[in-house]
Structures are given as structure tokens and as C-alpha cells.
Amino acid sequence: MIKCTKSLKLFLMLLILMIMFPANIFATDAYKTYTISIDGQEIETQTAYEASTILKNDYLQRPENLYIADDNLMYVADSGSKEIVVFDESGKKTNSIGKGILEKPTGVTIGPDNQIFVADSAKERVYIFSKTGELMSEYGKPDSPLFGKKQPYKPLKLNVDRKGNIYIVGEGASNGIIQLNKAGEFIGYFGANTAEASVFQTFKNLILARTGIKKGFSNVPIAPTGIDMDKKGIVYTVTNGLTVEAIKKLNVAGSNMLLQNVYAANTAIDIVAGPFGTFYVLDANGYVYEYDSAGNLLFRFGSKDQNVQRLGVFKQPTAIEVASNGNLYIADAEQGIIHAFRPTEFTNKLHEGLVKFEEGLYVESEQYWQQVLQMNSALSLAHIAVGQAYYKQQEYKQALQEFKLANDTDGYSQAFWEIRHELLGIYIADILFVVLLVCLGLYLLIFLDKKFNFLQGIKKLVKHYAKRKPFSELLLLFKMFRHPIDSFYEIKRMKKASVLVATSLYLLLIAELIISLYYTGFLFQSNLLERYHLLLILSIFISVLGLFIMMNYLISTINDGEGSFENVYTGTIYALAPYIIFSLPITLLSRFITLNESFLYSFSTQIMLAWAFVLLFLMIKEIHDFSLVDTMKNTLLTLFGCIMAVLVLFVLYILVNQVVDFVSSVIQEVMVRV
């Protein structure tokens, strides 16, 4: 009785502890979901797809490819059982195709007449079966001379367009996708990749070409590894191993409609077009990427682990397919299973909004995007869609804010143009009147001064102060534009520029840099402040400027230059007069122009910097009294000296870090042992 009472008390105590301190025993996904933030960085977001089930039975051994037909039947190319296995929506086997005919089926698709097309890499043939599984045709290697006798023909994946033309991804088919017509005749290559060459490869080919040795060093493009086609006939391909244009969306002419900087891995193995204007990419590392029609990444999720068998975790992913309801199916060859994923409520809302958005119904899609933003305010695509909705409703200020949040410069420029157009329409008459009034007033002032000379006292006062320091030193900045050589002569020989005023101008230069970083128009911002701290930017700027001054003085001294350190210090800041004078006006200009007038900003910036560089060159020549050749040599040596100084400092930094780590580890070891 006593033992029973003690056991009961112990049980009650454990129960109370469990209630007070509950364990974290909740279901979590075996993978994380990521998206691209507004600043272009990958960030974690809420789950987009949930692993729902696994299709597994005795019939599947090594699934290589999937295809879901319009009647929702799933066709699986199974190289293990050497057949095409057909499943219904519940995962029940309904048919088996190609048994005894196929050797290694690696690709399957459905043609326009419900014919089943199968790629067999082992037999190097394409087989065509009827809906019931009867063999209708088979196509081997094309005998056309255009195909090439030495070209390999090992079909891996395939797709068929509305006319019955077959698009085949072949192993080693570096010329591109193999095209056969309905009768199996070769009609050409399509969407070939470009060869990527490293710097070393390019240099080696250049050297060997000059010696006449070319054989064995040709750079062959990588063959595509995956293919799909949407209902509009647009072909999608992926290539495992490419870093540029690994994902392609090809039009009828075979040109890629996506930008080259599509966010993707270089291990992509399969691709499928979705029902909502999106497309999905599967890579060899077990990640699934979903993109919108323009190639903007919506989600990345997935996981790969060789040592576990868990829902949603792959071992050897080989193919991806999507159903009409948005469910994803991913084949795992090593496990002999198919993983099924269903979209979450968040993803469903995004897809509903995306369908309206792709159709150009921006206003109708707004309600869906607003719900998406409530769930994830960092999704740039949602901000763009809401901005388009506001734009269509002529609510340009709200559209401007949304485009800015999405970092969409094109949309921002359009909305800003509309706002500026409205303001000009309201105030253009007042602006012209004020300008005319000012011009008339200046004309009358000049006319009356010429006649009555009533501004003589003011002119004398201005001339009097213009000759006194520090005003004369400041005015020397403007003389630099008209007579730069005379100005540097006055700085060197006549001491018309003091260190105090030069230091003040350096501080003004830094202040203008800060203003340009913060107040340059959104369309022309460099985003440096988003990537780096302001103090870091200023430290680098000041260090580079100081290093240039120091190196130029030291190298010029070695090369018998006449200029002192003070001359170089003051001359450098006066040579930067174009930046000091025009930086703020250009920054102000950037806030009033759109992308259509961007040449005004870029051209004026380039002129300002080029002008400053020319003045720096003249400064080195005049301050040190060099010839033109000596000036060029001195300039190059100065730049080389700056680079070497940075390298030395970097090496010292690494050495000091290693010494500090070593001393720290020794101290920790001594403390542990003592």
C-alpha cells in the first residue's frame, strides 16, 4: 500500500512538471522555406509547401521521370522495373506500359492525341504507345546528315508540342535539344547552350591558336538535363553544371526570354511549368525552386539526407511534376518513392493573385496580394502587384510607395513621372511666371547699373573681400575650371592655398559624399548604405584618399619631384573641385528625373569624375614640374604603390590575427591545465 502511494505521488509530481514545463513536442517540417527579400537577399519565410504523403508500393523501384495527364493519371518512367507505371489520384496502380519492350525508360510525356512518348536511354530510342499501352512507333538515331554521324543519341527526357513535334534532351547532345517531327524525321536543334570558358581556358586557347595548335582544346557547351513545355508552347530547359542561363524559357525562335541573372543553383536537373504561370526547378541537392513567369524566385525549399527516411526529405531526387491543383510530386530514385507536397494557404493566396496579375487584372488581384502581405510583408512581388493595382487606379503616390518597398525602379519611375506630370500641369504657369520675372529683374538691374552705376559700392566691397583670405582661397576653386595650370602654380609658388582651408574643403568633400549617399534619388541610389555601415564607407574613402596623397608624395620625391607634402595635400583637394562644386546639384537633379532622363544623371556624373581625373593629372604634372611622360609614369606608380600598400596591410592583418589566435589558444590551454 505504501509503495503504491509513493508511486502515485511520483506520477502526480511528474504530471505537474510536464504541465508546468511542457516539452517542445510539435510537428515541424523537415526543411525550411526561403524567399528573396526586397534587398535581394535570401531570407527564411513561412512554409510554402507541406509534405503530405509518399507514393510507395511494390511496383516502383527506381522512378526517373513523372508526367501528370489532364485526367490526373500519373505516368512514372521506372528504370528499375523497366516500364511506365500508371497511378490514379489515390496512388493506386491502374496500368503498366512497355513491359518487355523498354530497357531503361528515363523520360515520359503525353502527346496531343493522348499518345504516350517514352525516352529509353539504354536502347537509344523513343517509343510511342497508345493510351492502352500498345506500341505504335519507335524512333532511333536520325539518319539525316544534319544530325551528324558522330553525334551521340541517348534520349533522357522529352516533350511534345501541339503539332506532334518531339523535343528530346539527349545525353551529351551539346548542339541543343533534338527536334523530330511527327514522322520521326530530324528537323534541327533547338535552344543550344553557350560554352562557358574560364579566364585560364581563354588565355590557353589564345596562346595555342597563335602557335597553330588548336586540336583538343575546343570548348563544348553542356547539354541540357531537363525539359518541359507549357500550354502556350513555350519550352523550359535546365542544365546541370551551368552558372549562367542554367534555366531557360525559350520562345519559338529558341531565344531565352529570362534574364541571365535568374537566382538558381548550378545543379538543376529537372523543370516543370505550373498551372499558375509559375515554373518549378529541382536540383540535385534536393531543393525545389518556384519562379514566377519572369524568373523571379518565389520560394526555395527542400532537404536531402542520405541517412534518414522522413517525409519530405530526399535521397536521390530525379524528377518533379505539378498537378492542376498545385500539388507537387518529386521522384526519389534511391528510395523508390514519390514525395507529394501540397501548397499552404499562404501559397494558394499568392497563386490566386498571381493568376490575376499575369492576366493584367491588377485591380482584381489586389485583394489577394494584400492578404499575402499580411502574411509576409517582405515579398517584393506582392508589393509590385499592389503597386500596379494602385497605378491602374491612378493612385500614384500609393503606387510610388509600393514600388519603392519592392525596389522596383521601373514601376517607381512610371509612377513618379505621372506625379511629376500632374504637378507640372498645376504649377507650370506659376513657375514660368517666376522665371520670367527673375530674368526681367536681372535685366533691369544690369541696365540701370550701366546707366547710373549705383552698384559701384557693392562691387568694390565684393572685390575687397575677394582679395582677402579665406575668401580668395575659396574662389580659387572656381578659377580651377578656367585656368587650372595657373591655379596650381599659385598653390605651389605663391602659397595662395592654406592647409586650413584645404582641410575645410576635405571636410566639405566628406559632407557632400554623405549627402549624396543619403539623398540621391531612389532610381539612382547605389544601395551602399544598405550593405555597409556609413562609418565603414567613410573610412575606406578617407583611407584611399590619404593613401593616394601619401604615395604620390613619396614616389614623386624618389623621382625628383619638386612638390612638397603640403603642395600635394592642398593641390589634391583643389583638383577635386568639379566634385565639390557639382556633386550637390547632380544629387538634387537625381531626385527630379525618371529613368527616361537617366542619361542626364549618368552623363553629368561621368563628366564630373572625368574632369576631376584630368585635374588630378595636371596637379601631379604642375606641382612636381614633370614632363607629360614622367607624369604618366608617376600616376601609374602611384596607383601601383597604393595597391601594394593595401596588400601589405592585408597580409599584416592576417598575421596579427593568427598571432592573436595563437596567444589566445595558449592562454586558454594554460588556464584549463592549471
Q: How would you describe the overall organization of this protein?
A:
Among the domains are: 349-454, Tetratricopeptide repeat domain (Serine Threonine Protein Phosphatase 5, Tetratricopeptide repeat, Alpha Horseshoe), CATH 1.25.40; 455-656, no CATH class. Helices cover 46% and strands 19% of the residues. It is built from 17 helices and 25 strands. It has a 4-stranded antiparallel beta sheet. Strands 4-5-6-7 form a 4-stranded antiparallel beta sheet, with no helix packed on it. It has a 4-stranded antiparallel beta sheet with strand order 8-9-10-11, with no helix packed on it. α4 (362-375) packs antiparallel against α5 (380-392) and α10 packs across α16. The longest helix has 46 residues, at 628-673. The two termini are 54 Å apart.
Overall outline: elongated
Quickly count the helices.
Answer: 17
Mean of residue pLDDT? 86
Major sheet: 4 strands, antiparallel
**What Rg do the Cα atoms give?**
35 Å
Task: State the strand order across the main sheet.
Answer: 3-25-24-23
State the share of residues found in helices, binned by percent: 40-55%
Number of strands: 25
What is the terminal-to-terminal distance?
A: 54 Å
Strand content: 15-25%
Structural class: alpha+beta
